[in-house]
Each structure stands twice: as structure tokens, then as C-alpha cells.
Amino acid sequence: MISPARVAAYRVVLRVFEQDAYADRAFRAAVEGLDARDRALAQRIAYGTVQRARSLDHGIVALSGRRVETLDPPVRAALRLAAFQLAYLDAVPAHAIVDDSVELVRRAGLERAVGFANAVLRRLAGGLRSLLERLPDRTPQEAALRHSYPDWVAETWWRDFGPGEARALLAAQNEAAETVVRVNRRHVGRVQGRPDPDLPDALHVDRIDEEALAAGLVWPQSRGSQLAGVCVGAQQGERTLDLCAAPGGKATQLAGDVVAVEKHEGRARELRENCARLGASNVSVVLADGLDLPSELTGFDRALVDAPCSNLGVLAARPDARWRAEPDAELQRALLRAAALRVRPGGTVTYSVCTLNAAENEGVIDASGLEPEDLGAGWPRFRHPRRPEFLLTLPHRHGTSGFFIARLRV
Fold it and tell me: With a threshold of 0.85, does the pTM exceed it?
């Protein structure tokens, strides 16, 4: 009998790398029917394997003498899954990992590969952890291999933060993300958790209470993301434009009348459902492209541009994002310009992105020509290390997702 958690994790890894599925969606389908303990273990194994794939592949090649791309997909997935557990998990006996992974290959109908898989797995059990621990990280390229990132990510952080901070960032985003919810003040109900000292609605929890979530009492949202919503500063009696609103975490934080724009029909439908669940009747959803807004959407007091980005600040929570990440500063600049045109003179535009890349962050603001307000004075703990008028939450320093936040006067 194979561990149900390993079977689920194997399915996730196979779908992510062989079918280009998103890890979170593949995970939801794979763990249906599992109890909470098996779900947690499956997530740890699956997400860790996806995150560490580059390092794991290096070890598999070194100890097997075979390039991973030449292996049958089920064999490749089983070896990666076992390699992660052998290298990074301490509580599971090696023989159980090896036996289950061999059985996964057998169940895939690849009896001819069982002997090969068994031999490689035993080599991994004996030498993989020490091999990976000896990998150097003196240069961005070495650090990218050791911590399992594309080279360009390590190079970006080396450039923007320096070697020491970059290494800490690389390590931090291979650890489990914080579990934080935002308490929804529109509904009355009791939710257990530890209040956050910095953000009034943030609650640290051991796990997401699915009943509280279904009832609209809470919304899963990192402290970095919540901070961005708070910085908009929307007040009763004001009109705010949220230009890239789905799934609605920030839009439903905002006071006053909110117009939430989403260009994709399915995501707009999800946004409406989330607003209804949270009782955010002040939010109106508009299906439109942020770069081609209806003419009547103008004269706003405030705007929020939570722009699409490379997601380099949320790699702990989105394990496959590092392999998909693509910066698009041109789109971000265009969205910021579009929002500024719809805000009245004297109003503000808040620009936030969940990435740690100067080209997508302060570079976009500098190109806008708009005057930043001093957010660092109000939130000194999260002050940007080089540009104190901006905020920058850092996973290795603040224990939350990485968000860049700027508020600009129109």
C-alpha cells in the first residue's frame, strides 16, 4: 500500500512538469478525499519537489548517469519525488520512500524500468543529501543551482540586494509560506488565531478554517498583500478604481465605492462570487481590459494597480511560479498610465506588485513621472532599503510575501 499522500504528490508533480498544469489547481484535484494530515504531507512533498526540481535533477544526473529528459515521465516524476524527500525531509524512513517510489513506477505500467528506478533510488538514498549540501553558492549561477531557481532570478537579486541578501531570499522562498487570513469585518463571527501587531485585520493561523472561509468570515491573504490594500487609503465617500482586481482580496478591503475591473470572464465571475461571499456590496465588477476602459470610468479619487508581474515575491506559496516567471515592465507602465488618466487631479494611484525586481518596481514608478508620497514614514518597518518613500516586504526579513508598494499623487 503506497502512502496516499505520496500518490497525490506524485500526480501533482507529473501534471505540473508533463502537462504544464498549475501546481495549486493540480493539488486541489489530487488531494480530493484525503484527510487533513495526508493533505498537508502531500502539499509539502509536491510543492517542495516542484520548487527544488533543478537541484534534484542535478543530483539525479550525478548519481544515475542519465539525463532526466531521457527518462519516461512517470519515472522522472517518481525519482524527483523521492529525491526531494530523501534530501530535505527527516521524519520519513528512506526505505519507505524508496519502496513507494518503485511501486509508483510499477503502477505506471513500466515494469522494464523498475530495476533501474530501484538502483537509482538506492544511490540517491545513500548520497543525494550530502551532494546537494556541498553545492557552492559563491556566484549567482552557483546559488541558483544550489537553491533551485532559474539563473536570472538569482542574478536579479544579486544585482538589487547584494550577495548576502540574495542568498537569504533564495533560501527563504524554499520554506513554507506563512498562513495568514484577513478577518472580514463585514460579517460577525468568531475566528481563532494570533493577531498581527502591524495590520489590524491580519490573523496568523495554523491552517485555513474552511468553514470560516465558506461563511465569508476570513480571506486567505498574506500580510504583504494586506499591506498593499491598506496603503490605498480608501475612505467612505470616495470612489476607487481597482484596475486588476481578481480574485478580489484587495478590492474587498477597500472602503467607499469600488469599481473592480477584470478582463477575463471566468476570473470576473470568480471575483463577483468572492465579493458576494464577503458581503462587499460596495464593489461593482466590470468586465473590461484595464488598457481599454469604458469612457464613463473616470473621475476616481483613488486607484489601485495590482499589476501582473513575475511573482518573485510569492515563490514560497506558488511553487511553479519560478519556472514560469516573466517580467513585463512595459505592461506595468501602461497599466499605471491608464489608471492615472482615470483619477481626478489631486487623487492618488497605488501601485503594488508581488515581485522583487527593481525593473518592475521602482523602475516602473520612475518612468511614470508621477510624484510618490512617503509611505515609508508611516510604515518604517517595511520601508524600502534603497528608496524610503516606497515599501518593500521581504520574505527573509518580514516572514511574509514580497510586495513592492508605492502611492503616487496625480
Answer: yes
CA 1, distance to chain mean position in Å, is 33
Phi, psi of 374 (to 5 degrees): -90, 90
Q: Which is nearest to 222 in space by CA: 308, 313, 357?
A: 313
Give me the active site residues, please.
354
312 near 359, Cβ under 8 Å? no
pLDDT for res 1: 81
Question: What architecture does CATH give domain 180-409?
Answer: 3-Layer(aba) Sandwich (3.40)
- List, in sequence order, every residue forming a beta bridge with 302; answer none if it has no partner: 240, 348
Which residue matches cell numbers 520554506? 175
pLDDT score, position 174 = 97
CATH 3.40.50.150: which residues of the chain?
180-409
Superfamily holding 4-134? NusB-like (1.10.940.10)
Mean pLDDT by 10 residues, the chain (410 residues): 94 97 96 94 96 98 95 97 96 90 95 96 96 97 98 98 98 96 95 95 95 96 98 98 96 98 96 97 97 96 97 97 96 98 98 98 97 97 97 98 98
Query: Long-range contacts: 373-377, Cβ < 8 Å, 24+?
Result: 373/348, 373/407, 373/408, 373/409, 375/231, 375/405, 375/406, 375/407
Check residue 90 and give its pLDDT. Answer: 86
Distances (CA, A) of 94 to 121, 128, 138, 175, 331: 9, 12, 31, 22, 48
DSSP 47-104: HHHHHTHHHHHHHHHHHHSS-GGGS-HHHHHHHHHHHHHHHH-SSS-HHHHHHHHHHH
In whole angstroms, what is the distance from residue 109 CA to residue 118 CA? 15
pLDDT, position 182 = 98
In the 8-state DSSP scheme, what is residue 372?
A: E
Give the 3-state secondary structure of residue 300.
strand
Residue 274 contacts residue 260 (beta carbons within 8 Å): no
CA distance 37 to 97: 17
CA dihedral over 71, 75, 77, 79, signed as positive or negative? negative
